[in-house]
Amino acid sequence: MTDETERLPLSVNQEAVWIAWQRDPEQRSHIIPLPFEVEGQLDLPRLRRAVEALAIRYPQLRGRVVATPDGPALDWSDAPAIPVRESEQDGSRKEALRQLWQQPFDLRSGPLLRIDVLRHGDSQTLLVAAHHLVNDGAGVLIMMDALRAAYNEGSIADGTVADLAAARHHAEHSRELADGDSGQAHRAYWRAILGDGGPDFELPKSTEPSGFTMLGDYIPHQLETRLRASAVEHGVSYVTVLLAGYFALLRRYSGSDDLLAFLPFHGRTAPELADQVGYFVNPLPVRHRIRASDRYRDLVTRVRLEVKDALRFGELPLPSIMRAAGLSGPQAHARTHQALFQYWHAGLRSGTDLQHLEFDGAVLRLIDVESSAGFKLAVMVREDSSGTHVMWKDPEGVLGLTQVQAMASDYLNVLGDIADRPGSTVAPLASSAAPPAGHPVAGPQPESGPEAAPGATVERARMIEVWQEVLGVPDIDWQDSFFELGGHSLLAESLIYAVGERFGVEVSLNTLFDYPRLSDFTEQVLGAPQAESVDSEPAAGPVRTEDADPQWRPLPHRMALGLSREQRPDGVIPAESIICKVFEFPGIRVDSPRLDRAVRWAAAVNPSLTAEYHIDASHGPLYRTRPPRPGLVEMVRAASDDWEAVRRVADKIASEEIVRDLDVREGQALYVACVHGPEAGFALVVRIDHSVCDGLSFNRFLKDVSDAYATDDEREFQAGHSRTDLADVAVAERIALEDTRTEALRAAWRARLPRGVPEMFINDTTPWSECPPHGSNVQVVLRGEEYQRHLAEARQHRATGFMVATTKILRALRPVLLNDELAFFCPFPGRFVPEAAGTVGNFVNLLPVLVDAPRGTDAPSTLKAVRNAMLWTLQHQGLPFATVLDEVREVDPTGEQYPKKRRSIFIAGNEPDRFTLDGVSATARVPDLTSAMFDLSVWVTDTGSELVCSAVFRRSLLDHEAVHKLLTAIGAPLESLPDSGV
Predict the structure, then answer these.
(1) CA separation for the pair 499, 463 (Å, rounded)
(2) φ and ψ at 843, to 5 degrees?
């Protein structure tokens, strides 16, 4: 009977390899060949003893696959020894190595490692061939290090068998993820990424006869240095930069914006696997969509996020990934397995450099060899002591030698663009799937002489025309400088705007200042001149809005829900509500170009503010980004140069904007006006559609404007303010909502709301739809002794100031509340996935807070009940209100999906408005609201020196005096407050 110490269960990935071998025992895609050039001489008997020691340390290398009641397993009981063979080289070394490594392994009999020493005169070549079933890239380093130690020292470590418990656990864990509950979130993620069938992406086929193609060379050292510096600048890894370049190249050659490349994940998530030889790697399909407006720095940042997300769910075995996405079977395999990007740090293991392995009396240097990767195109990047080596493999001759040569050359051009021109747009799509043979197609191309290509002539004419219109100069030469032609800062703003409109690109002022000569500026803005038919008509006038970014992407849950519910039958999507505030800077002279630039930069890193939105019949609410235009800030001159005149104009604009009838589809969510007088100062009116921006996001945008105002370096600003795309947040939310952990939240809310979400009736029971929305405003400010008492009460009762204020509001309302239940709606951040943490959008989650304080409960006990209710809701805020409501739909009294479309009370704790420009803090004001969504809405803001309590109420239910009395009760001592009030 076999000892379990001599057997390991196959992981899901290993079993897939086993199944593939059974279908085709002659296939070579799972053989790992490692040929080494030998400087000096290897002693063959000594090498055999070293291999025997290696087999003792890692006996699975001798294994074979056997059937067991629990499934296939790797067994090495009574297994044959690892062969060490010697032969004379007949013919070329390349052909001799090919014949040796391509010999198939027999997985039923083993062993799964073999060693060949190839002699040619006095020279030797060592070939180590392993089957992927028992080894991977990281394992190769461990194995070769162990073989070297055994050869040099006669043994490996203590000479005992490596502990295989971690490998056993890895195999069992892979099955749990593939089929069990623990893998639900993983499967949901990959279903969201690839469940639509994956991208319609295909590499072009060669028309020339070709067999196995392999090209390899090192990235030039100077380019590598620049790429590493670029990686540091963008806050990403060097590998991410290389992968981003690969995606740009795939786009160029496939003609597709929607791309898929497989990236091997090491899979050694347990520390105990760090020194294990085995097959733990897991190829992950990374999907990337390149937008027409993407610049290389955008590409690099988004590739990093996509890889990071993929790695979070990277433990799910590849067969399970494909099955979860409905992509099983040979046809799906052929369509998806187009491109592989494999990174291997051959010097990652300390003291192990495959370009310089010291065996006593010999030095081994890894050489390139043909091998099959199971993909149409495989790019294998290897870092070693000599630099970064890039190997291009076309195993089946699908692309052909000429095309692979062009791709290898173009890849260096793309990497050069990433390193030197990160702000330029990603290389354009090829005009056809297969570029002309032997012609580079990516990267800047120099003009061949004084006459440019026909396409370049067209682009020149269009750009010269823009310069002539803006500068008013009829005769402009290709080598003229903007400033020599009379250009200045105001004209620079106009030129940047005109170029953006004409060519559909986003251009920074820095580009014009850094490249003022027309020829240099054009190259920076439009890239290298691209040849186009002389018969083609140049686009006239501004680029159409629909050309800004053709890619519509999904929205996060809360934003999608809001847009769906607000849409009218005519298709218009009105704003849910408006956030509008006035920020005053008396006595400060405005720098209008600097202000407009700061607002544009801030809007650019928060695309929800300028994006377009629409609701697709099949895919629901979607968005697409648009670059913010220059002149985003409307400059308004006050009628007279006194501060009150500035305030009056600002108040008028704010009162108009807060009731503005917006259509969310149009991408006009953000509006900024600057009202100024030369000496009086200026006031900013900032209006944002609440549909796409909540309170936290509003403050984050203001902070971004402050930061952008403080710097002249757009690149530095963008690097420090990168945000997760809304679409990536949407994916993360879907995964979170499908997680089994949400079941516990659903059950908790069902138990919390046995009769649905209670309504709070003030004074009468008129249905919400029949209550006129006309509202009024009241504000009370607690200062001095009242404010200090408020803080002391919060400390005494171990509660927050907001909880104390809420308690007093609820107690003051008791006499006019007709129902016995005590509840209110409170906004929670709604950012229940990490990806949403820094993203600007509307994530706010209005949840009902149920307070267990029957009539007659004293004030301290009511405060305790409020505190407990808030804590409970905080702990269970991971479900959107719509999902909560779905759980109690059958018992909910209104059936309404919105919190506001029911008789209810709203109480919120606000962060104080802090907005600074050049270190000067603004005074913030909010225009009066004339419409009340809730019967009563109260905002409590602690500024650090006073407590500002603002309210909006429905005039049909309450009056100004009653609400003022209610807010004044917040300043009364808690202990003396009766269960009565208004």
Answers:
(1) 8
(2) -115, -5
